[in-house]
Each structure stands twice: as structure tokens, then as C-alpha cells.
Amino acid sequence: MKSIVKTLGALTAAAGVLLASAISVPAQSTWEKIQSTGKLRMGVTQAPPWYSKNPSTGEWDSGLIVSIGQAMAEELSVELEMHEVTWATSIAALQADKIDMMFLDPTPKRAIVVDYPFQPLLYISLAVLARDDLPAESWADLNSPDVSIAVPQASSMDAFLTRNVPNADIQRFPDNGASLAAFQSGRVDAVSLFHPPLLAARKKFGKGKIVIPTPAFSSPSSIAVRREADKTFRDWVSHTIFFYYETGRTQRWYEEFLEGFGLDPKASPVIQKELLYSN
């Protein structure tokens, strides 16, 4: 009986050592994996001006976030590897260790499950795509029953217009596409969205002007990374995008894409918030 007890004790102790050993050897962090594989994995989805796939080659070769990802990979002396995801699946891709970073607005709900740098990457502003002859320099210009504005129903844009232009003829539609279609067909004088979708719409429609009415309403956007104990990669991303933003690189890359996309940067909303008030 004593020998059995001793044997069980020895087995238990050995199991404890093995368990402690397993616990003490954590999986590679994102930073460690990038260093060991020589690859930085970025999520991409077709969404100009952020990402754009070349239809003739199938390559993701333009867009602001593509430029930023390429610069980051160069800083780290690694290869940039792009993985196609959707906005809806990108967080799951981060959590499943399929990508290392994804351009995503830092909402409180997202911040529960993924990590964000402390520095915003850029700012997007609420804008209008309006008739060329429509006064739209300020929200006050649009606050008239003679002005009809399309907006996605129950969206943050809808709430903002309801508060700030209550006298306008606000026409609510199921989504962005339907709101833009209402402007394209001439059923409304303007459509209000955060400005990135308006850039592609302006090019497609070949009419209208994009304006950020004053006082400007801007929202920060950033890069989501996997939540993990080792914050080295998150902190490196934060310092890097701060450097790009403050030195004007982010705005310059954005303008380069607009020019390549056939849009005039001077007639397009900026993404560096301070430039909104520079004139």
C-alpha cells in the first residue's frame, strides 16, 4: 500500500512539473512571431481610399492603409502579407491569429475584444455630397425646409442631422447605397455620410461637391491589433502611426491615392484634423 501511495505521489508531482512547464512557456506574441517569420500580416478589404485591389493584376497595390502597411513592413525589415477579410470578419481573424492588424474605428464595443494604439491613425469627418450650386459651407446653410438631405436611417449621421439641421427635409433610407442613389437620381439636394464613401461616389456620379460643413464633426479611426499580454507590437504601432501623422506622411499618402484615383486632393476632405482649421 505504501508503495502505491509513493508511486501516485511521484506521478502527481511529475504531472505538476509538466503542467508548470507548459504554463511557463507561452505562445509567441505578435511581435515575436513577426520577428521569427519575417512577415507582417494585414487584413484588407475593397474599400477606397483605404484599400484598393487592382482588377487587372489582383494585387492590393493602392490605398492609404496599403501605403501605411508597406511603410511599416519596411521599418521592420519584413514582408507585408495581405489577407482579404470583411469588416464583419476582421475581428475574428485577429483573434484567430490569421492577421496581425486591421484598420477599424476604435468603438467601445470593439475595444472590449481587441487592442488599440493610444494614438489615432487619422480622422474622418461628417460631410455632404451636394449639388454644385447648393450653399453648404456650414450646417446652418443646410438647416432649411427647402434643402433635402438623404441619410441612412437610425445611423450616427441621422442622429447628428436630427440635432443640428432639424429644419431641413431629412429623408431617411435603409443604407448608404440607397442614400447615395437618392442623390444620384436627383431626388435630394445632398447626401450626408462620413466622407470616405463620398469620394468613390463623387467619381462614379461625375457631379456634386464634397464639403465638410462647419462646425466640423470628426471621428478618430485607428488600427486594431490582437489583445495579448505582450504589448510590444501595440506600442510600436502606436508610436509609428503617431510619427506618420505628425510628420504629414499619412495625409500625403492619402493625397497620392486621391490623385491616382482621379480626384483632386484640394477638393477632397482632409484626414489630418488640424488642417480643417488651417485656413
Quick summary of this structure?
Helix content is 40%, strand content 20%.
Entry keywords:
279 residues, alpha/beta, seven-stranded mixed beta sheet, 11 strands, elongated
How do the strands and helices of this protein lay out in sequence?
Elements: H1 2-23, H2 30-37, E1 39-44, E2 52-53, E3 60-62, H3 64-76, E4 79-84, H4 90-95, E5 101-104, H5 110-113, E6 122-130, H6 139-142, E7 148-152, H7 156-164, E8 169-173, H8 176-184, E9 190-194, H9 196-205, E10 209-211, E11 218-225, H10 232-246, H11 249-260
Parallel strand pairs: 1-4, 7-8, 7-9
Antiparallel strand pairs: 2-3, 5-11, 6-9, 6-10, 6-11
Helix content class: 40-55%
**Over all CA atoms, what is the radius of gyration?**
24 Å
Query: Low-confidence parts lasting 5 or more residues at pLDDT below 50?
Result: 11-25
H/E order of the elements?
HHEEEHEHEHEHEHEHEHEEHH
Structural class: alpha/beta
How many H/I helices? Answer: 11
Give the tally of β-strands.
11
How far apart the termini lie comes to 90 Å
Strand content: 15-25%
Largest sheet report = 7 strands, mixed
Shape: elongated
Quote the average pLDDT.
89
Model description:
Strands 5, 6, 7, 8, 9, 10 and 11 form a seven-stranded mixed sheet that branches. This protein has a two-stranded parallel sheet with strand order 1-4. It contains eleven helices and eleven strands. A hairpin with a 6-residue loop joins strand 2 (52-53) and strand 3 (60-62). 40% of the residues lie in helices and 20% in strands. It has 279 residues and is an alpha/beta fold. The longest helix is centred in the first third of the chain and has 22 residues, at 2-23.
